[in-house]
Amino acid sequence: MEQGNKDRSLVSKVMDGLVTGIVEDRYGAVLPPQDVLSKDFDVSRTVMREALSMLLARDMLDVRPKIGTRIRPMRDWRMIDEDVVNWRFRAKPDPQFLRDVIEFRVLIEPRAAAQAAVRGTAADIAGIREAFEAVRAMRPDEPGFQTAEELLHTRIVVASGNQFFQQMAAIVRGALSASNPIVSSDPVVWQTMVERHARVVDAIERHDPREAEAASLALIDFMADKIGTTLPMERPHVGGNGGLPGLGAASARDDAAGAAGV
Questions:
Q1: Is the pLDDT assigned to residue 248 strictly greater than 80?
Q2: Which CATH class is domain 2-76?
């Protein structure tokens, strides 16, 4: 047991040293061979192999035949372990978990929508529109619907151009898989959800970041309200409105825009 703990500690130490060397650009684009690294760190090849495998699992390295162990761009590194995210969302969602999911979506998706309106290329925006039309043409109980909606939200996050937002897409997809069965069972509710999705997409197409952000907030607010009528979900108390941060203002703008026919 003591030896196992010692080996794990050594692997962690080697990982830390390798990462330090990578971020300080000591190695260039390709790491030295394993036997060279083992000598440099004064560890066995078994320990070095384990440390490298841990970095490989986090998308920091890439092994290429005849090239060696290539260092991947930092934008590709797995800041969030998608396997862990997927496993967590397999469990039946509880009220606290759904509350946390909504808080996460509030932090990420509205800003991503705003940035997509500013930074999205013509191809990005065309892809968002294509994904939305696929969602609009399907019923929530049709095969492939969940995948279609996940693609829509993923494309918006990717179009933001923010590498941190992009790596949160796995959590966004998981959030949709957890909440959709609750909100999509009512046809009237789902039609409203489609209309609110449309406002987000329209704002992105018009390159209107303020409206894209407000529309995304209003969409999440509506979804949260509907989940709250089904489950005794605690709503966060932020600011003076007792709701999610910024959602009261977003809903007010949404209602005003709707009354004005925008």
A1: no
A2: mainly alpha
pLDDT tops 80 at residue 142: yes
Q: How far apart are CA 141 and CA 232, in angstroms?
A: 25
Q: Tell me the C-alpha distance between 197 and 216, whole Å.
A: 8
pTM of the model: 0.72
**Where are the chain's structural domains?**
2-76, 82-259
Q: Quick one: what percent of the chain has pLDDT higher than 70?
A: 85
Q: Domain 82-259, CATH 1.20.120.530 — does that match?
A: yes
The better pLDDT of the pair 170, 183 is held by 170
Q: Are 62 and 77 in contact (CB under 8 A)?
A: no
Q: Residues 217-250, buried b or exposed e (16+ Cβ, 10 A)?
A: bbbbbbbbebbbeeeebebbeeeeeebbebbbeb
Ramachandran class of 68: left when φ > 0, alpha when ψ lies in -120 to 50, beta otherwise: left
CB atoms within 10 A of CB 10: 17
pLDDT in tens, 107-130: 999 999 999 999 999 999 999 999
Same CATH topology for 2-76 and 82-259: the answer is no
Q: 244 falls in which pLDDT band (50, 70, 90)?
A: very low
Sign of the alpha-carbon torsion through 122, 223, 139, 175: positive
